[in-house]
Amino acid sequence: MTQTKTRQWRLARRPVGMAQEADFTLAEADLTAPREGEALVRTIYLSVDPYMRGRISEGPSYASPVPIGGVMVGGTVGQVLASRDPDIKDGDLVVGYWGWQDHAVVKARGLTKLDPKDAPISTAVGVLGMPGRTAYFGLLDVGLPRPGDTVFVSGAAGAVGATVGQIARITGCTAVGSAGGGAKIAYLKEIGFDGTLDYKAENDLRAALDRACPKGIDVYFDNVGGALTDAVLERINLGARVVICGQIAGYNERGKEQGPRNLWQLIVKRARIQGMLVSDFDHRADEANTRLRQWIREGRIKYRETVVDGLENAPKAFIGLFTGANIGKQLVRVGPDPTR
Amino acid sequence: MTQTKTRQWRLARRPVGMAQEADFTLAEADLTAPREGEALVRTIYLSVDPYMRGRISEGPSYASPVPIGGVMVGGTVGQVLASRDPDIKDGDLVVGYWGWQDHAVVKARGLTKLDPKDAPISTAVGVLGMPGRTAYFGLLDVGLPRPGDTVFVSGAAGAVGATVGQIARITGCTAVGSAGGGAKIAYLKEIGFDGTLDYKAENDLRAALDRACPKGIDVYFDNVGGALTDAVLERINLGARVVICGQIAGYNERGKEQGPRNLWQLIVKRARIQGMLVSDFDHRADEANTRLRQWIREGRIKYRETVVDGLENAPKAFIGLFTGANIGKQLVRVGPDPTR
To answer: Do A134 and A121 share a structural domain?
Structure first.
């Protein structure tokens, strides 16, 4: 084995409020030689996602937090350098979950082989990966959209939100998305959103929502939370479904964000708010991926990637998710992509 | 027609904050003679219910508000004095919705005949009326309880909450209820709640919930809202269902009550919060009434009534709902009950 070291980002301390680069440490670690059923991989793309903010907090969540000193978790696309598993060959392109490091020795059964003729390999952590499946199951299984519904998506220019809006249109719905800034709004229009709301340009979210969603809101796919959700809940239609996918507005809050207690609206509208986590739908991943791949081939789903180069820039790319730096899927390119 | 006058409570002004007696005016009005298809009725029992607070506010709700000067709405049990409808006879005991007045001329098809051999006629606005059906459909159709679940009910000593807890037990669940004060807690124990929480006696709602619901909460049937709901949402189990039936803690708030924005918990627990309104289940009223009547006969559902005498005391009885004056169903006895 020629590669005996890996550079890896470890969690240095739990962030207080907004995550900072100093919350992470770049370190070098020795690699063990792959044992039976393991493979040495090099990282090509590292995915950074808003959910990771929850994984570095102490608080109760759906998974135990990354320990202090632990390697940061994350979806990864890479290439096999040395395999000791019969199903994985040297040179194979794979998607896995080995985190913020440039090399790793991993269990081969945690890897899924990728065919670059199928789709660009980076999409395995984007529109054909966790974010795409989140959009697919969150909208279709939890949001239960009906043709003619108005589907309002917050964080619509992100990897999940952009896909939600396009699936909503495929379902026969009117898709309205919110995002911050002219470039993102232009992107939403480019990928076919029927309406948009630039929350950074609006002083009055309520009035802006009324203009953007003149027929009210039947499905609210929420990646953001906070004041926008307060305003949406006053504009939902009878029987509306609110999908809580993310609450990025609050992820870097120090205490508990305060807002109006507005559950009365759910009685008025006999509506529901439901939280979703994509891993609950892992047993149906093939269904989502097959359809998403077809919709991409047909040009009905478009996607965009924002790529930052260099493992050293992973914390910066991660923090940028919370300041709105990315359009579409945020990736860190850690090593050369042999297919491009 | 011997009776030509009615005394009626009219809405004098929209309450600001806590409703007051001065928000209502007692007035006398002339009765018209019943026309074809109408009947003159005298009121025996008037139901006062928390939902009426929403009906006298300006804000958007599920029904248009009582106009200033209009007769206060409400469920009523009474006796027919003069009928001009073939299906309704003089002397019949009926339940209807003619509001806060001692006599009324009403459409006969808005009346349902009561058989006092079946159940005390007052139950037609209580456990066999709107509150009973709210408990039945809210718990079973929206809360979806499974045997073994912990069902936590707020406002558990009220007409709805007490019935919810007992249906939860019939369903094989553990029923835990919250109420304020020793008399109500004793009542909850008497009717079979497995656990109780006296919110007036507890300084730390979170610790009290942990003690009362050691296995967490699978179904939260919420009549109250506010700080108790904030605490419950941190204690729900995976896949929990929260039924928003009422939010009495906030009904007399002047502005919008503030609280933590805690929808993140719904992702962590893949839980849902759903609002319910009993009128959506009106087409299945017979189903609920048949089963509730049977459970009462079998002694599996008990109920209690708090009765105030005299139409003149209707505002006081109504306001008492918000200060916790009632155990079980709050009624105003407006005229003699010939069956007791």
So the answer is: no
